Amino acid sequence: MSGLHVVFGAGQIGPLLAARLSAAGRRVRVVRRTAAPIDLPGAELLHGDAADPAFAAEAARGAEAIYHCINLPYLAKVWEEALPRIQASLVNAAGRAGARLVVLDNLYAYGRPDRPMDEETPQAPCARKGELRARLHDELLAAARRGDARVAIGRASDFFGPGAWAGSFLGERFWPAALAGKKVQLPVRDLDTPHTYHFTRDVAAGLAALGLDPEAGGLFMLPCAPAVTTRELVRRLGAALGRPIAVGRVPRFALVAAGLVVPIVRELNEMAYQWEVPYVVDDARFRARFGDLATPLDEAARETVAFARRKERRAQGQADEPAP
User: Are 225 and 159 in contact (CB under 8 A)?
Assistant: First the structure.
């Protein structure tokens, strides 16, 4: 085993990325803020605050690559206070270690796109979180130009699949109802516009590819299957489940009313434009360099259903089914 790779963040993507790197024969350290238990076979677990430059630099000492996969509560105020400090700390840590910094980013900086999004799409944010993401992206590229750190950025859309639970539209609010045979209400404005959803294992595979390639730098759209509508993705998930999943959308007036008193709904409403226009990712640049790492949609659906069933069994205190 060779080469230390340090993953900051153990939410939806960090554990999958750690497993991918371990399978590639790398020594892996996962850094998370909380001491909650987590299953990370083959990886070292370290607790601490990535926004603390001294701690982050020590955690990254000797690394050949570090990864920024940190999730924060979905509140613009929290993002504005914490994300710049975390990014600056990790740039510093990567520079001091001589490591590549691989950053997981989203698509908010693009605003309302009028064509498929790729690496040449201009940033045009139309919401508070998007403005912050655009500014952080520009600062990251400026740091790379100054030679502060070698940087690769992978952008992805909404997640589904193993690990995508809290914070995912197709996670903890979707699956309990779907598995119980109930109708699922999604807080999206249009179920029938094309929308790229990124399968979590593909996101992890893309980040690993960026981290394992010493020459990879700049911006890449992470691997994804061709975009389908939200309704079609739910249909595929139902086929994998073995029965249709009835789906509807929460009425807009209900979301607006709830947003007046519930902060997280207000935050979601600000980003609802993503389901009003085609929101499609073009990962051609990634495929040209690394090949097609996207999981076929029906295979991804089967794995997502298996993950959701495990989550529900554990929530009910039941043992996992034995592997076939």
Answer: no
